[in-house]
Design a protein that fits this description.
The radius of gyration is 23 Å and the shape is globular. Helix 3 packs across helix 4. It has three domains: 98 residues, Winged helix-like DNA-binding domain superfamily/Winged helix DNA-binding domain (Arc Repressor Mutant, subunit A, Orthogonal Bundle), CATH 1.10.10.10; 116 residues, Aspartate Aminotransferase, domain 1 (Alpha-Beta Complex); 237 residues, Type I PLP-dependent aspartate aminotransferase-like (Major domain) (Aspartate Aminotransferase, domain 2, 3-Layer(aba) Sandwich), CATH 3.40.640. It is built from 17 helices and 15 strands. The chain is of the alpha/beta class. Strand 1 and strand 2 form a beta hairpin.
């Protein structure tokens, strides 16, 4: 099997490689070595040429040459006339059965593992706890008494929470019973469980283009073959979905109706109904991801599943993390009863069950969900107003559409690619997610875009825009850089 990486894949895997101390070439060499140690670069993998990688990383060719030379001197890289540079087989010899570790994917979350105090990461959204959440947690301790004597796991979720979630959906126009609910460790695990159930190597999956890189990574790890369909101002293009279903017979259709990540588009009622009818008619299951929220539209419709005819297989995923607090890892999925049973078996294999203390807290938070959601929305709307004001002041040539909801802007860069800009931004201590990573399309159609999450506090918004503007001026005026530009903080 060819384990070589394209330059775009390698740049994505390197992540925030240029942050930290020491010579730039040394940091690049260390980051490449780390990819080998974790299995993302296997023995024999071919590396891009020094010139190609230097262009992609926006550094001088000398920097890449020095990093490659260092790794050659350490026996990590081999170079041969006519075959380029490869990872040496002596670093981690290939096993006789051909097995090799799989370190691919998860570009979005690398900085969660490799944290750097000097780096401002915009790869993930910040959701600090709302006022009052701490008190809810304290009061929830009073509800633990009976559970402490049980000594059980509740693999499908705490019964009281499943009842509360069923009521939550019913109140929003989607009649639901507790046996349709499986509580998960955040929406991320819910999507992972659905991917495990429906997907295998080569499974065609219809997805929105662009889409959320974190979930695309989960499906890609299962071997999914993506069929990207563009969006318009009402959501995923329904004619494109019909063609994709007819031509590819997908195993799954993955959409984010309220609200789409990264564009913030809210899918129209008509589009939800059309997708539900399509699922019922063709038998294609739909995974509806409703976990992305923040600023909320005053006329937000019921979930897509509420518009699906009887017999349509729609699995809806939601979470409390984006409303109450990112540290509360409580999510859930709502599915037809027989699918909920199958997914709960996957949940047991993953972790037996979620923490009951978190679920007790979630019961209380769900009882106050509407007020909490309005509070989060009001705060983020004011923050979004401030962020847009700063961008119009310091980066007047940038373009974006005010989102229908969510917690980020989908920025369009004039006359530049987001991959190149992201590399320059790293030298200013800012980690961005280029639009190409938010897309399953093999083209570079979204390279002009990047997702800009709304920082939670005013000082953070000022700092982010200041670094963005410095990086933009450098990209506009200069070529590659040999060393990070010193920050004046």
């Amino acid at each position: 099997m060819d384990s070589s990486r394209t330059v775009d894949e390698l740049v994505g895997l390197l992540g925030a490689w240029s942050s930290g101390d020491g010579a730039l070439y040394r940091r690049l060499a260390d980051s490449l070595h780390a990819l080998i140690d974790e299995g993302s670069l296997a023995p024999g993998a071919r590396l891009p040429s020094e010139r190609v990688l230097a262009t992609a990383l926006r550094v001088s060719r000398t920097t890449v040459v020095s990093a490659y030379d260092l790794l050659r001197s350490e026996g990590v890289f081999d170079s041969r006339q006519g075959s380029g540079t490869r990872v040496s087989s002596t670093v981690a010899p290939v096993r006789a059965d051909g097995w090799a570790p799989n370190g691919a994917g998860q570009y979005m979350y690398r900085n969660l593992i490799q944290q750097d105090a000097d780096l401002v990461s915009l790869s993930c959204m910040s959701t600090p706890a709302l006022p009052g959440v701490e008190e809810v947690i304290r009061r929830s301790l009073d509800d633990l008494g009976p559970l402490l004597a049980e000594g059980t796991y509740h693999p499908r979720g705490l019964p009281a929470l499943r009842e509360a979630i069923a009521g939550f959906h019913t109140d929003r126009g989607l009649p639901t019973t507790a046996d349709q609910i499986v509580v998960t460790t955040g929406a991320h695990q819910a999507i992972s469980l659905v991917s495990q159930l429906y997907l295998r190597k080569g499974s065609p999956v219809v997805v929105e283009d662009p889409g959320f890189a974190g979930c695309l990574d989960l499906m890609s790890d299962r071997g999914a073959r993506f069929v990207p369909v563009p969006l318009d101002d009402q959501g995923i293009d329904i004619n494109g979905v019909r063609r994709a279903v007819q031509e590819h017979a997908p195993h799954l259709l993955y959409v984010m109706p309220s609200y789409h990540n990264p564009t913030g588009t809210m899918m129209s009622v008509a589009r939800r109904r059309e997708l539900g009818e399509l699922a019922a008619r063709t038998g294609v299951p739909i995974l509806e991801d409703a976990a992305y929220t923040g600023v909320r539209h005053p006329q937000e419709p019921p979930p897509l599943a509420a518009y699906a005819p009887r017999g349509a297989e729609v699995i809806s995923v939601d979470s409390l993390s984006k409303v109450a607090w990112a540290g509360l890892r409580v999510g859930w999925l709502r599915a037809p009863v027989e699918m909920a049973v199958r997914l709960s078996r996957r949940k047991v294999l993953a972790d037996l069950a979620g923490p009951l203390l978190d679920q007790v807290v979630a019961v209380r938070l769900l009882a106050d969900y509407d007020r909490l959601a309005r509070q989060r929305s009001d705060h983020l709307e004011a923050a979004l107003d401030h962020l847009e004001e700063l961008l119009r002041r310091d980066l007047p040539d940038w373009r974006w559409r005010r989102p229908d909801g969510g917690a980020a802007l989908w920025i369009e860069l004039p006359g530049a690619g987001s991959r190149a800009y992201a590399q320059v931004a790293l030298c200013h201590g800012l980690e961005l997610v280029p639009g190409t990573l938010m897309s399953a399309s093999p083209t570079d159609a979204h390279d002009r875009y990047f997702r800009l999450p709304v920082p939670a506090d005013a000082a953070g918004r000022e700092e982010v825009v200041w670094r963005l503007s410095r990086a933009w001026r450098e990209l506009d005026r200069h070529g590659p850089v040999d060393a990070p530009v010193p920050l004046v903080v």
